[in-house]
């Protein structure tokens, strides 16, 4: 019995440590967002929320954007950078339509500021 526990305890500990490494911090509470981030939240709600969740996991029509900049890569496998996310928003990718012609002045910068809070 003791021999079995010598094996089981390290395996359980390793599993717990590895699982914890994949969790992302929670998003910044809405009440703590600055004005630019709030404008980004509003733009997200009108332009992105129909296809993407922002504050919860799971796919809607597209992937959840919770922790998008806190993960090592985007769902495509590319690095999560402002440039890559901006290009995806402006030009679209796969089933995501291009939003470049639908953005008001400042929307992209506001959206990026908001996405960094997730």
UniProtKB/TrEMBL annotation:
Secreted as UniProt keyword: no
InterPro entries: Cyt_c-like_dom (IPR009056), Cyt_c-like_dom_sf (IPR036909), Cytochrome_c550/c551-like (IPR051811)
GO molecular function, one term: heme binding
Keyword entries, A-Z: Electron transport, Heme, Iron, Metal-binding, Transport
Domain Cytochrome c: 35-118
Keyword DNA-binding recorded: no
Protein name: Putative cytochrome c family protein
Source organism per UniProt: Granulicella tundricola (strain ATCC BAA-1859 / DSM 23138 / MP5ACTX9)
High-level lineage: Bacteria, Pseudomonadati, Acidobacteriota, Terriglobia, Terriglobales
